[in-house]
Amino acid sequence: MDLKMKVVLLLFFLGLATTTKSTGCCDNCTCTRSLPPDCTCDDVKPFCHSDCKSCRCFESLPLKCTCLDITEFCYEPCNNSTIIAN
Predict the structure, then answer these.
(1) What is the per-residue DSSP string for 19-77?
(2) Is the distance from CB of 27 to CB of 77 less than 8 angstroms?
(3) 3-state class of 5 per DSSP?
(4) Is the dihedral of CA 58, 63, 66, 67 positive or negative?
(5) Contact in structure between 48 and 19 (CB atoms under 8 Å)
(6) Could you say which of 2.30.42.10, 2.10.69.10, 1.10.10.10, 3.40.50.1110 is the CATH number of the domain covering 1-8+35-77?
(7) What is the pLDDT along the chain (86 residues), one digit of tens a residue?
(8) Whole-structure pTM value
């Protein structure tokens, strides 16, 4: 295992790679048509935003993380907003 992978794994296990100081935002939000809606953020980034309670990162370089939270709303877009109703 090379040094970069060891550093990524160490940060992952320490929880340092899973959040950033940014506020919650999402470019690819998907919501159900239920009331209240169940919304998820489908963004894949090297970190999860600070409002994410359940972040999942995959062992890859660069690190790929996604927020698994289900909310009743979509966060403000980070760049471009795509909202899809199922």
Answers:
(1) B-SSPP--SEEEE-SSSS--EEE---BSSB-TT-SSEEEES-SS-EEEE---BSSPPPP
(2) yes
(3) helix
(4) positive
(5) yes
(6) 2.10.69.10
(7) 565 555 555 555 444 444 444 578 899 999 999 999 999 999 999 988 888 999 999 888 888 999 999 999 999 998 754 444 44
(8) 0.62
